[in-house]
Amino acid sequence: MAYKVDEYYRQIDDYELMCQSQSKMDIPFWREMIRRYEPTYVLELACGSGRIGIELLHSPQIFQLESLDINEHMLAAYREKLEREPDTVKQRVLLHHGDMCRYNLENMCRFDLIFLAFNSLGHLYETRQQLDAFRTAYEHLAPGGRFVVDISLPMIGLGGSSSQVSLQEIIEAADETFTMAVYSTYHYDRYAQINHITFIYEKFFASGANERRLIRLDSRVFFPGELHWLFHVSGFEIENIYGGYAGQSFAQGTRQIVVGRKPDT
User: What percent of the chain has pLDDT over 70?
Assistant: First the structure.
């Protein structure tokens, strides 16, 4: 079955506008992970356009970052951002075009921290893909290294769909040329555990014009037990589980942020 994911990332400017509020929440969390674990080598999977990675490079801690993504357009946007950074930042980043299920990097067994942020695990629809992603991350970690995965807790009602269009957010463009309203609706396939989401982006321009786009995204839903199973069956010890970016306990949040640790031996 062909799942819809590419069109969600096609308009990179709109995607990054959508992520502004997300960045305020999750970047402080990833900075804390860097501070706490003091890694020398870090790998970000599904890195996108560098929304998180470039911010982390401005942390007080010095580390080497490698970033991997399957979408060439997102990597091109990442490279464009890096061109505006000083050489001291550029020299610490290595970008890879590749599949997060199967890659073979030169620094295998040297990474202290590998992370998969903001629901990107939901792009792995098949069990084989999920196992490959976790096992490949395990192989690339140094003994004692951590693999951190961040994905929403399932919030699926028993009805399996929502015919009501909900307003998610209203966003003002930085240059004030337009305001964008983001609406969404979904249909949940409980057998495949796929949430079929439709986003409606409506832009209202200062000139009086407006435009509307429909974007479809299929996202795999993960229940806590199966996510924990993926860590365990891949060899990880689960070190911590957070319910949100403020570090709240798993039972008190809307996210499942799992820290898996590769044993020392």
Answer: 97
